[in-house]
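TICKET #2291
ISSUE: user wants both folds in one file
ATTACHMENT 1:
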Amino acid sequence: MKFVDLANMYKAIGDPTRLKIISLLNTRDCYVSEIVALFDISQPAISRHLARLKQVGLVRERRHGMWVSYSLNHNLIQELGISFNELPDFSQELTEI
């Protein structure tokens, strides 16, 4: 991986909202509507954050008809040796939406 790519990845992780999205996706794959329900920001803003995470390769999207689910790219995360185990667990919040 190029130095610039790695720097951009860490810049993407450095945003508190994106880090919270990563923490959420570390719990399980989610649809945009599920992510929006846990944040106090608009759906377009969440989509922009997801697009940034996807751009640097940390997040993958999978289309299910009209729905799009997002997941962490665990292969890249493992390759880089990044651990998100210390991030908060959102499993309880996900059961409430």
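ATTACHMENT 2:
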Amino acid sequence: MDCGCKKKYHFFISLLTFIIFFLSYNIYYAEKPIEGNYENGEKLFKKHCTACHSINLNQELIGPALAGVTKSRNINWLKKWIKDNKSLIKSGDKDAIAIYEKYNKIEMSAFTQLSNQDINDIIFFIEKNSSSSSYSTSTSSTSNQRTNNEINKNLINDNFIRVLTIELFILIIIIFFIFLRIRTIYYLINVSKEPKKNVIKKIYTYFLKRNAYFFKRNAYFFGYVSICIIILLSLYFILNFSMNIDVNKGYQPIQPIHFSHKIHTGINKIDCKYCHSSSQYGKVAGIPSVNLCMNCHNTITEYNGNYIAKNKNKEFYTKEIQKIYKAIGWNPKTREYYDNIEPIQWIRIHNMPDFVYFDHSQHVIIAEEIIKKHKSVDIVCKACHGEVEKMDEIFMANDFTMKWCISCHRTIEIVNNTYNINYFKELINKQIQNKKPNVSSIGGLDCGKCHY
């Protein structure tokens, strides 16, 4: 009898432990952010998806607008749909059939040639642009604004929920353990014919007597285990939080003037280096002075373009131009300057810490072609700052962490210039032979390269 109970006891403990672990694993990882390669996702989206879906994710074309699709659809379902939507429709999936019928039964191309990682990168690209609206021309800057406090608050909430989830399931395991002990006691004592009140009292008394010595004997063990678990979870929480301090990807403050890079760089094709000229020959890209703005707005006093963002109109853009005149003290009617000026208080977005040395000229001029090739961009600025020509207002498109910078130095080849030919002949020769030594081979990972 006892032997059978012990076997059942061990079986139930093993089974419940497996079930709880399985459930906790799925719950813990179900809400984790999608991870993928943004650049590869962007490249694949443009290559395979833009024939039917707008790069402006809020706009419908042949297919639906994709903004927010990662919130409204299960990720695993999306992967199946992209991979082979025809099979999903034939399987009788209600969501797949509904989409198929809604869009006039036009079949979406199957992308069986794409790997799971490729599809994950595409979904990652869609999610990031849905949240940051880097390709969206219809979202106001107010709704897109993310401050440092909001970012850190979200990180704290996410980590708190994860730690709480783990602790909750540990508690469930303990409760099940106690329940099974009570169940075992129920079978050990002969209480089948007694009244319910006596049964509960007898079980309670027997449980305390039988287990008091066990818990007393192992009190230190349970105490140490609990303390270790709490310490490990706390360390995980602190480390994860610390690693994300001042990582402000998506940061988009409201600027004093609604300067649209989409209008200036995208539509009017103004070269980035025209306004940020110091990026070619100096450490910082610099903020252009109002005098530079007046080179054009000396004559362009009102907005007459065809592009109008959502919730905006031509009068809005014209008023923003007038702010330039107030800043420099210019009367566009009399075409004279006056003394009362109001300097523009731009809010800096990309700001490296004082202990980091980053030289724009090294990347924009010396390594321009090789960065463009490696990042698959037509303008070198996009490698770090994203699709600037499609942004109504600038936001931080990348992490700008040390890890993010090092990942480039580990993969980008050495620039084949005069300096490197003279000082790193062997490495250049290897590169010519397609062995491709990277920037880390010439000190690109040395601490003193960026911190001195």
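RESOLUTION: both attachments delivered.
EXTRA DETAIL ON ATTACHMENT 2: The first strand starts at residue 330 and ends at 331.
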